[in-house]
């Protein structure tokens, strides 16, 4: 069961699984909340906390078999992309910019993101992507505030 969660229903076995998982998350978000914010702060915080807890547990459980932060574990990309789009009124351009920003931060790992990977176990697996999502979210909100998005 934990392998299924960690790989997000098998996406982690696909070449480029991290990007595929982030794109799948974007498509799902777009389908369930076209043109608006799906959840307000309270429910969004509960769902985010649940996703982070489940992802951390799954990443921790598969670490013994697959090693630290295996490429197969993509629940962290889904969680990071979710954080990146949290409370962002969704449009096609915002979703695309969010995806590009998130993948940039996730791959390049600037601004303490790489440091998060050093945290132990499943926490380290999840937190670098969560921080990439936080930076994505902040830039998306800044772009909306300034009228660019």
UniProtKB/TrEMBL annotation:
Domain YutG/PgpA, chain residue ranges per copy: 4-142
MF terms in GO: phosphatidylglycerophosphatase activity
BP term (GO), one: lipid metabolic process
Keywords, in A-Z order: Membrane, Transmembrane, Transmembrane helix
Domain of life: Bacteria
Transmembrane residue ranges: 12-31, 38-59, 79-105
Signal peptide: none
Name used for this protein in its record: Phosphatidylglycerophosphatase A
Taxonomic source organism: Hymenobacter setariae
